[in-house]
Automatic annotation (TrEMBL):
Protein name: Radical SAM protein
Superkingdom: Bacteria
Gene Ontology MF: a single term: oxidoreductase activity
Biological classification of the source: Bacteria, Pseudomonadati, Pseudomonadota, Gammaproteobacteria, Vibrionales
């Protein structure tokens, strides 16, 4: 609901956090409530406090996570963030992001200032860098400089979807009613090449600044930790302000793939909605029926990657970033040979070899 600026009512929130699946989550593994929009921090502080009061009253064990664009960050909001959220996350792109009056410059300035403000307050913020064409053009040094300027250490690189096109034209769904073909701004090959540049050319700076990149860490530890929760329909629900329910938040504007509405459907109906079951089947079975993945040595850890885009895009790379995974495997071999020379198990200081030499 990006276009109508709706706000969730406390009544809707009460219904959500009263669901059995929230209430029955174990105390030592509580449910996580991600607050995202739109822009959560554009709401009046009184509204945010009212949301928090509802959660504290009905689901006191839930953990709260904030997703914000950091355009506004007052002292009052920083206090609220510290008191409310166990983690905070933002998105960044070197271009195509602007303030409400259309200024890219103002956006960049305020984003950097506020990201640094968080670091100065001791708040670690995960930054999801949208790898659109402008960010790739700006080069890896742009991100290194941003990390240096702001003092933030956790960076992630997301596929950049052409949301304007999606909102204007909608998307096709497959046999599983899953929108797996959304348009992107750059190819997988460009994305993978960019990530490899980071590991290969800027390892020293990453070590110096303590930068961690989630995708690289998960490749190294061989976790199946796909991007942006698009393979977690079985444990993940998104609610629009009016109570409409869906799976991954990237689909929030696409009506045919909703699972019902919290005001009109029972929890049982929502959790067993045929579309939800089909989505889960797609993410856990249907998606694997792709020839690129059949014989892939990384299948166990990757499982076809980010599920709302195609597995291949004709660029010679796949969404699981096979070339990045291969590169990290080559690095792992080097690390085993030189554990005292290389930096740390998740990234390491690469030996002074070219990509081709490392691959060999
Ligand atoms: S790395 Fe690529 S080919 Fe391999 S499983 Fe992942 S998406 Fe499929």
């Amino acid at each position: 609901m990006r276009q109508n600026r709706a706000m969730m009512s406390t009544d809707t929130l009460e219904k959500i956090v009263s669901m059995d699946c929230v209430q029955s989550a174990p105390k030592d593994d509580p449910i996580t409530l991600c607050w995202l929009g739109g822009e959560v921090m554009a709401l009046p502080i009184e509204t945010l406090i009212a949301y928090r009061d509802v959660i504290h009253r009905i689901a006191p064990h839930a953990r709260n996570r904030l997703v914000t664009n950091l355009f506004s960050l007052t002292h009052e909001q920083i206090k609220f963030i510290k008191e409310t959220f166990f983690s905070i996350e933002t998105t960044y792109a070197a271009g195509m992001k602007m303030s409400l009056d259309g200024s890219e410059e103002k956006y960049q300035h305020r984003f950097k200032r506020n990201l640094k403000k968080l670091a100065d307050e001791g708040i670690l913020c995960h930054v999801n860098v949208e790898l659109n064409d402008k960010t790739i053009e700006a080069g890896v040094d742009h991100i290194i400089e941003l990390a240096r300027e702001t003092g933030q250490k956790c960076w992630e690189f997301d596929i950049s979807i052409k949301f304007d096109q999606v909102l204007e034209k909608g998307v096709q769904v497959n046999d599983y009613l899953y929108a797996d073909d959304v348009p992107m701004t750059v190819s997988y090959k460009q994305w993978a090449d960019y990530i490899i540049q980071f590991i290969r050319d800027r390892n020293k700076e990453m070590k110096e600044l303590g930068i961690r990149i989630g995708f690289i860490d998960s490749c190294f530890s061989k976790d199946n930790d796909p991007f942006f929760n698009t393979m977690k329909t079985h444990v993940y629900l998104t609610f629009n302000p009016n109570g409409d329910v869906l799976g991954a938040p990237v689909f929030s504007a696409l009506h045919p793939i909703f699972y019902g509405n919290i005001h009109q459907n029972s929890e049982k109906e929502i959790l067993n909605h045929p579309t939800k079951l089909k989505h889960t089947a797609y993410e856990h079975v249907g998606r694997f029926h792709h020839e690129a993945c059949y014989h892939c040595e990384f299948f166990t850890e990757c499982k076809g990657g980010f599920s709302c885009v195609p597995i291949t895009d004709g660029s010679g790379e796949c969404v699981g970033m096979k070339s990045v995974r291969s590169y990290i495997e080559a690095y792992r071999t080097e690390f085993a040979k030189h554990p005292n020379v290389l930096w740390n198990p998740s990234l390491g200081e690469l030996p002074n070899l070219t990509f081709d030499e490392l691959e060999r």
